[in-house]
Amino acid sequence: MSYIEFLQDYGGRMVDGSLITLVQFVLATVVSVLVALTFGLMRLASNPAVKGFATVYVEIFRGTSLLVQLFWIFFVLPLFGITMDKFTAGFIAVGLNMGAYGAELVRGAILAVPKGQWEAAKAINMTPAQRMRRIILPQALVIMLPPWGNLVIEILKGTALVALISVTDLMFQARQINISTFLSVQTFGTALIIYYVFARFCVTPFMRAVERRMAFKIGRA
Amino acid sequence: MEWRWSWVWELLPQFIDATGKTLLAAGGGYLIAVVLGLVLTLAQRTPWRPVTVVVRELVEFIRSTPLLLQVFFVFYVGPQFGINLSPWTSGLIAIGVHYAAYLSEVYRGGIENVPKGQWEAATAINMSTVQTYRRLIIPQALPPAIAGMGNYLVGIFKDTPMLSVIGVAELMHTANSVGALSYRYLEPYTMVGVLFLAISLPTAFFIARFEKWVRRKMGM
Amino acid sequence: MTTEDMSQYPLRLEGDNIPMVRFANVRKSYGALTVLDHLNLDIDMGEMVTIIGPSGSGKTTVLRMLMTLETINGGVIYVDGEPLTHMEKNGVLVPANPAHIRRIRSKIGMCFQHFNLFPHMTALQNCMEGPVQVLGMSKKEAEERSLELLDMVGMADKANQYPSRLSGGQQQRVAIARALAMRPKVMLFDEVTSALDPEVIGEVTNVIRKLVDAHSLTMLMVTHQMGFARDISDRVCFFHSGVIAEQGSPAELFGNPQNERTKQFLNAVLESN
User: What is the per-residue pLDDT across B25-49, written as a single tens digit (0 to 9) for each?
Assistant: First the structure.
């Protein structure tokens, strides 16, 4: 079977899988950003209970494997009455995991904003919330965008694990096709190239463009 | 659902045995990654442009595709050409190559961190390239690289569960089989999580200490 | 702070001639290191007071405490007759809550050594930020006022530039406009020329001169520019080891210093110039 024939026969399923991967990726990224902002800010709270809770969250999710977390959420959480369908469990698990890494990026970026900025905001009598929202976060955003570019690629790669709870993403389709055809080079090779092209020529350039735009917006370009 | 301690104790020896295999996989994979990563870094610093471009893109390729897929690829592609690799061999190759790409970036960052003036000073005292790397560049590139190398040591450890999909009998694989037999997943998966935490948290802590120690020792 | 008898401090300053700022027995220490030891200093309305002294003498700390960037370990600071660091509760002074601090702090503005302009906002936006966000002023009004102030500091033509495009002197002038936009009663200048190249110091000191001439602002300044301090101040305080070693009119302090430390310091500074 030539590669062209292979694509004619199985390309459609690859495309279906890719679309599921895309949706999982977008949803997982949204969850990650929300988790990262929430826990990153909580990590900087002065209240020890809030700070402690966020630290425990971050350490647990960064200290164990995404795969373990995914299985735990999908197989064990229902025992506690929290049942999610596999699609939801998939992007939630990836988002919660990557969000913990993102929280550290948020925290680090906020701490990297020069101390003088906090003081100047205080000197014009801003409330703590105003200082954070108007002065610190916009600057932190520019600082954290480059590492987020890497994290977003990790999120994309992380979504491949949802295949193991039978979400029919690209990884899942590749595995199914491989089982029925044993054309491993073609199936897995094609899937690798799709991930690569999407990451390298769509996601990364997009993140770079956002970086440039933000840097320009805050007047550093 | 109730937590059954008695079952946990019953499973524990099996899980500890599997933890050993997990550590073996992580250690073996890391060894490959440390060495191959250096090769990838140095290849990108050769003056021969086609090599640097191809290796650079190869690193990008490995870094931007899922490890899980790479594991399947390595495991299933061999037999198509009549080469049968055991799950362990394929697993170590896949995870080792994957992390070699990451480590090569860490090394590269470390080397690029060394100020240009150091190279010029080395030229000024007429050092050879090898001498310059050995005496000046690597000692200065290493301390900042330790944090990254340590992170990926913990990272490779946490990624070993992916080898369970091709039948490497590490922790996750053990938990899956125990769970499938008993239809109880609470204890096995929780135990895997706890064992991972119990290893990765202290490791991360000691790496941070080690990094500080090296920096102090080198007067940085 | 807890062991101090707070009843020695009045709940508010009353009378005809109350100072704009009063430091009463103010103490500040970092661990075992005492930075300020029982500081007592009154600054009258409209007065320009300059603080000079060797580095580490606690002079910048005075300004930072007044701006509430540092907490104090004892004593009370009053602004415009009311306690800043404390508030009344059941007839005694207790440490102020954030709402009280914000209310009193609104009377104080500050310019920093490193300007601390907001890098993600233009010069104009920097000036409008406080009036719009904190004072709740309309954008139109805030813009008018900010442009006026930028004009006053000679930066009207750069209103739409981001700080990264401005020189140090220009940034500092915008920072002065930003502080003034909040209509403070007291302005603090913390070594505002120390980070500047020598040739642009004049453009900043000229703006401060203008303020002294035109406004009834009360000002407190820390500087290393002795000539400028001498020209412009109503009173100069020489700080040494956390206390005011000597104070007086510029003519007295620079012309006929009494304290040995002051003499040494002035000699050392003048020699280096």
Answer: 999 999 999 999 999 999 998 889 9
C35: in domain: no
Other beta carbons within 10 angstroms of residue C238's beta carbon come to 26
Q: Say yes or no for a CB contact (<8 Å) between C112 and A142.
A: no
Domain ranges for chain B = 5-217
What are C31-57's pLDDT values in tens digits? 888 899 999 999 999 999 999 999 888
Topology of domain B5-217, per CATH? MetI-like fold (1.10.3720)
Asked whether the predicted pLDDT for residue C157 surpasses 70, the reply is: yes
Chain A neighbours (≥3 Cβ pairs under 8 A) are B, C
Q: Could you tell me if C185 and C153 are in contact, meaning their C-beta atoms sit under 8 angstroms apart? A: no
In a domain, C168, yes or no: yes
Number of domains in chain C: 1
Nearest CA in chain A to B173: A68
Q: What is the Rg, in whole angstroms, of the alpha carbon atoms belonging to chain C?
A: 19
Per DSSP, B144 falls in state H
DSSP C96-141: PPHHHHHHHHTTEEEE-TT----TTS-HHHHHHHIIIIIS---HHH
The ipTM value here is 0.92
* Most distant CA atoms of chain B, gap in Å: 73
> Rg for chain B (alpha carbons), in Å?
21
Chains A and C touch (3+ CB pairs under 8 A): yes
C interface residues, A as partner, C-beta within 8 Å: 67-69, 98, 102, 105-106, 108-110, 112, 114-122, 129-130, 133-134, 162-165, 175, 178-179, 182
Domain of C127?
A: 117-183
C126 domain residue, yes or no = yes
Q: In this structure, which topology does domain A3-217 adopt according to CATH?
A: MetI-like fold (1.10.3720)
Rg (CA), chain A: 21
Q: Give the sheet arrangement for strand C21-30, strand by strand.
A: C33-43, C21-30, C74-79, C82-83
The sheet carrying C235-240 orders its strands as C108-111, C186-190, C218-222, C48-52, C235-240, C243-248
Distance CA C148, CA B197 (A): 60
Interchain contact, C102 vs A130, CB within 8 Å:
no
Residue whose C-alpha is closest to residue C60's, from A116, A111, A127: A116
Each residue's pLDDT tens digit, A167-188: 999 999 999 999 999 899 999 9
Residue B153 near residue B203, CB atoms below 8 Å: yes
pLDDT band at A221, cuts 50/70/90?
Answer: very low
Q: Domain boundaries in chain A?
A: 3-217
Contact exists between B and C (3 or more beta carbon pairs < 8 Å): no
On whether the CB atoms of residues A99 and A36 are closer than 8 A, the answer is: yes
Record: contact A122-C112, CB cut-off 8 A: no
Residue C222 belongs to a domain: no
Tokens 């170590």 sit at which residue?
A: B92
Could you give the CA distance from residue A29 to residue A90 in angstroms, rounded to a whole number?
Answer: 12
Confidence (pTM): 0.86
